[in-house]
Amino acid sequence: MLKCLALVAAALTLTAGNAVAQTTVRWLHIEANPAQVKIWEEVARGFEAKNPGVKIEMQFLENEAYKAKLPTILQSKDRPHIIYSWAGGVLKAQIEAGVLEDISAPMKGYSDSLAPAAVAAFTQDGKIYGVPMLLSQVVFLYNKELMAKAGVDGATIKTWDDLLAATKKLKAAGVTPIAVGGADKWPLHFYWTYLAMRAGGKPAFDAALRGESGGFSGETFVKAGELFKQLVDLQPFQTGFLGFKNQPAVGYFGDGKAAMTLALNNVFLLQRVLAADKVGLSDDKLGWFAFPTVSGGKGDASDTLGGINGWLVTKGSPKEAAEFLKFLVSQDVQKRLAAGNFLIPVVSGADTGLTSTFMRDIAQNLARSKYHQNFLDQTLGPSVGRVVNDVTAEIAGGSMTPKDAAKAIQDAWKQGN
User: Do 113 and 347 contact (CB within 8 A), yes or no?
Assistant: First the structure.
């Protein structure tokens, strides 16, 4: 009897030990579309089924809250193992702070299936720190019915003057031309960055990073602010735009209250989720055009602004974190997400899953682009990026001149470098 009791006790101890030994991978994301999150949840459960003893715990933070809280989160002993990333200078700062894990070893071989430019965005000094998930492009989306009401054909907007003329026509017809989330500031920096790209092209940015030609206070960047002010002076945005955060502004567009919005391609679907009726604008009511060219500009019309977004593994995370990311960014999962038109995939061959004409167009546009600029508020690092966003909002609000805005960015860049 005593022997049997001992065996039972040993078995219970072993069971308890196995329960304690379960590995939990904490995954922090910012995705607001429940349909995409549902797929991720299914993928997580699939990984758990293939890896007994591993649990994937999903956590959510709204975009701006995530950016604000992440530095503190990364210093916590309970920090998540997987975090969202826009790469760029913010990633560089995190690497230098020593809060990320080098995942070069588990990525060996697997990374060959990914777009080289996407892998490069998460690589520093030959070490890989993240797994890219998607490519994205900022474009003008427009409501065909509201544009037609003002006699405007979005497909004919090719130049900055075309956009200014369309804005005037829309206002004359009583239509709000553009919806924007000014309170978050970064949606406004799209305008300034794109205008600088169209005015000076990649050489202007490269020269500014080297501190040449006046850096970010040079002619190209002052001109970008001046062109942006031309639009701002027409009062193109919805009333109270500086008080709108991005998601309500996207919903405003989805509700049919503004003719256009300059936004990431994912807004094609997100406007439906955030519209008051959860229906938003159907495919047949939506059009898009690339950011216009500017007179005398040196940038190529095919140059694109957008992101190469993905996931990072934090320092000291279990090896299962990197293994899960490889599972999450596999061809099967990327094809599934592409079929739902949630993203432009980075895995070779996964773009065949895209079912939307709009998303296929964006994918082809990105493929043609010779210069894809990552979001400037990420590329320049957290401190300089905040200044870019701040001064762009100041121009939009009329409280800063284009020249002073450019100087403020240059001063911040010089101070940090």
Answer: yes
Structural domains of the chain, with CATH: 2-135+307-372 (3.40.190.10), 137-305+375-416 (3.40.190.10)
Mean pLDDT, to the nearest integer, of 404-416?
96
- pLDDT number for residue 16: 43
Per-residue DSSP letter, 33: -
Cβ(219)–Cβ(233) below 8 Å: no
Q: How far apart, in whole angstroms, are the C-alpha atoms of residue 176 and residue 252?
A: 11
Average pLDDT, the chain: 93
**Residues 294, 296, 300: CA angle, nearest 5 degrees:** 65
Buried b (16+ CB within 10 A) or exposed e, 328-348: bbbbebbbbbbebbbbbbbbe
Confidence band (pLDDT; 50, 70, 90) for 417? confident
CA dihedral 269, 271, 277, 278 (to 10 degrees): 30
Of the candidates 50, 49, 73, 52, the one whose C-alpha atom is nearest the C-alpha of residue 61 is: 73
CB 124 within 8 A of CB 307: no
pLDDT above 70 as % of the chain? 95
Q: Write down the pTM of the prediction.
A: 0.87
84: β partners: 311
Q: What does the pLDDT read at residue 132?
A: 96
pLDDT at 129: 96
